[in-house]
Amino acid sequence: MRSVLVDTTIFEATGLTKQYGIAFALQDINMIVRAGDIYGFVGENGAGKTTLMKIIGGLVHPTSGKISLFGKDDKNQLDLVRRQIGFLIERPALYPHLTAEENLIFYCQIYGINDPNRITDVLQAVNLTNVGKKKISDFSLGMRQRLGLAVALLNDPKFLVLDEPINGLDPSGIVEVRKILEYLANEKKVSILISSHILSELQLLATKFGFIHKGRLIKEISADELLKSAEKQICIRTPDPEVTAQILKDELQIEYITISETEEIQIPKENADLEKVMSVLLQRGIQIQGINLSTPNLENYYMDLIGGSNS
Ligand SMILES: Nc1ncnc2c1ncn2[C@@H]1O[C@H](COP(=O)(O)OP(=O)(O)OP(=O)(O)O)[C@@H](O)[C@H]1O
């Protein structure tokens, strides 16, 4: 269903640069978020994620380069199309002494939203219907974040820009937000740009990843490519990895076999065939405690990438 929209560009940055004095917060960023993308934005503290999101929101102006939103790049048009975007950047600004509904009424007034059903709809979308009349001071952090998301949804956005929306949430809060975002992406066809330091969670959600390091976008990769990139090692657990590794070396003439710190034998996939490895182990009567292809892991991918770019 989502592939129908795939060629539509929602957000594009071209040569986007932001300097504070002589320091570059962003340097020559070229990136595209297409319709249907859940774009996971990954980078260390201070990498430039928030700055880019603020430029999308018009809160920060680039030093050079440009952005387009929904194909518009002229300043006045950008201001207009920003009304189709929902933002949750840093902590949601909520009034603690007001109820959830009253906070939403306040934002409806600011945004000029008159539809009386909108508040009910967004509360439902973030599973806060039951607590609409509760004061924010009685809300948990997770509830506040979800209400922040509700505010971002008030204008029925086609594009959501979310800066660390799951930061500080407990595991059930994180799952709840993930389900909401999946619902919005799959059912409401909302495209999403989301940053998070919780890479295991981002991996579950995003369809594409962009890695930003010291203000530069150093890599983009689709979720499928991430999956393939990780299937690069055969991992074997046996009671005696040293002996097993030697047998595999001798019988299959495999040069590059390593034993990890967790005593796992690792063989680059291009150097050996899984079936042949299995067959040698069985023939030699070696007890196999586990054998598999390494699973994709965004965190490892990121660490390898950053390690490479730091060296
Ligand atoms: N108003 C400002 N004045 C000066 N420097 C700034 C300003 N805003 C951001 N920076 C600097 O720009 C760089 C990028 O910051 P940014 O907040 O975009 O990073 P981030 O990737 O969002 O980090 P985090 O994960 O910590 O939120 C940092 O070095 C930061 O100190």
TrEMBL record:
Q: Name one GO molecular function term.
A: ATP hydrolysis activity
ABC transporter domain location: 11-239
Pfam families, from UniProt? ABC_tran
Keywords, A to Z?
A: ATP-binding, Nucleotide-binding, Transport
Give the top-rank taxon of the lineage listed in the UniProt record for this protein.
Answer: Bacteria
Belongs to which family?
Belongs to the ABC transporter superfamily.
Q: What is this protein called?
A: ABC transporter ATP-binding protein
Species this protein is from? Paenibacillus oralis
